Amino acid sequence: MNKLPQPSDRAYVPFVSVENMMRLVHSIGLERMLVEMADYIEEDFRRWPLFDKTPRVAAHSPVGVIELMPTSDGEQYAFKYVNGHPTNTKSGLQTVTAFGLLADVATGYPTLLSEMTVLTAIRTAATSAMVAKHLAPKGARTMAMIGNGAQSEFQSLAMKAVVGIDTVRLYDIDRAATEKAARNLAGQGLTVVTCTTPEDAMEGAEIITTCTADKQYATILNDNMVGEGVHINAIGGDCPGKTELAPAILHRSSIFVEYPPQTRIEGEIQQLDEDHPVTELWQVILGEAEGRVSSRQITLFDSVGFAIEDFSALRYVRDRLEGTALFDQLDMLADPDDPRDLFGMLQRAKG
Q1: Confidence at residue 3, expressed as pLDDT on a 0 to 100 scale
Q2: Which domain holds residue 41?
Q3: Same domain (yes/no): 233, 318
Q4: Are residues 141 and 286 in the same domain?
Q5: Which residue of the set 238, 275, 310, 328 is catalytic?
Q6: Does residue 42 register a pLDDT over 50?
Q7: Are 23 and 109 in the same domain?
Q8: Alpha-carbon span 163 to 137, nearest angstrom
Q9: Is 10 in contact with 333 (CB distance < 8 Å)?
């Protein structure tokens, strides 16, 4: 079994490859991992004021976006590199890819480097379910999953494991995506219903999750499609110029966000005035603000993904690596015997 590097051996950094991340997921069990990661994320939301927070640093192009997402709790630092390129699937590429790093604030030395394409899908689903646990109608059993791409199965299983749904109603403009999601969810303990219209998908749903990929102002849900008392989990609108909900839905909803300075740039609320009231989730979790207060209320989680969630995910992975063989040791930090003699170390390597 590998041991994580000790302070005396910090030239080596644990690296979790895609292959090892998948092995880690299977060794833990996906639903258990979703539940445990949701707990980690909620724990860090409870510490929200401790973290350094900034909107992610984004480089936009006509075809997509590349972003860096940094944060720190004063003891550990993390960042994620992530892209979002909706047209990639036409070339057989992923819409979203990512990797991330965790580091020790006291020394600046990295303590973990990890793939985060798979991990981001899991942490996004875990965040959605953690939020729904606080905001969705009590006893919710049915979710409409609008958009059946790479996130849909993770979202469905997270809502099952954390919230307790037993039925998912699938809809995508691409019928092949819906059929893919239905195949993947078969035998996972959910009743899976494939639908031909979004209206059909939302029939009887207490939770509505929207997760579409096009980088444009879109109206996936019209106002007349959304009845009273539902919880909307809007996760597809995650950059400037990309939305999924009709503005009228926003005006009827109690809106909950991760970090307002980022969400007002990237989320559904970019369609609203800058002073439109929203509630930060950490305040609900700590009991400092109200969440769901009536059975007729529409709650909306305007999720764009925030760096603290990635911090939680990386922290979770690092805690689960000890005693496993599910990582490699990368020799990525120069470590001369004399810290002042980097040149001498280079010269000695000639021989």
Answers
A1: 64
A2: 8-118+308-348
A3: no
A4: yes
A5: 238
A6: yes
A7: yes
A8: 10
A9: yes
Q: State the Cα angle at 234 between 275 and 255, rounded to 5°.
A: 30
Q: What is the pLDDT of residues 93-148, one digit of tens each?
A: 988 899 999 999 999 999 999 999 999 999 999 999 999 999 999 999 999 999 99
Helix, strand, or coil (residue 171)? strand
- Tally Cβ neighbours within 10 Å of residue 167: 16
What lies within 8 Å, CB to CB, of 92 at 6+ separation is: none
Residue 74: is it exposed, middle or buried by C-beta count within 10 angstroms (0-12/13-18/19+)?
A: exposed
- State yes or no: is 104 an active-site residue: no
The tens digit of pLDDT for each residue in 270-329 reads 999 999 999 999 999 999 999 999 999 999 999 999 999 999 999 999 999 999 999 999
Token code pair at residue 209? 């999750």
Q: Would strands 298-302 and 253-257 be described as parallel, antiparallel, or unpaired?
A: parallel
**CA gap 232, 210 in Å, rounded:** 8
Q: What pLDDT digit, counting tens, does each position of 250-283 carry?
A: 999 999 999 999 999 888 999 999 999 999 999 9
Same domain, 163 and 30: no
Same structural domain for residues 175 and 298?
yes
Q: Which amino acid is at 31?
A: E
Q: What percent of the chain has pLDDT over 70?
A: 95
Closest by alpha carbon to 314, among 59, 100, 147, 156? 100
CATH code, 67: 3.30.1780.10
C-alpha to C-alpha distance for 83 and 81, rounded to whole angstroms:
7
Q: Quick one: 161 and 279 in the same domain?
A: yes
**CA proximity to 220, closest of 147, 149, 162:** 147
pLDDT for the residue 1: 57
Provide the strand spans (E) within 270-350.
279-280, 298-302, 328-331
For 133-262, where are the E strands, in sequence order? 142-146, 167-171, 191-194, 207-210, 217-221, 231-234, 243-245, 253-257
Give the whole-angstrom CA distance, residue 214 versus residue 239: 11
List, as one string, the DSSP characters of 186-209.
TTSS-EEEE-SSHHHHTTT-SEEE
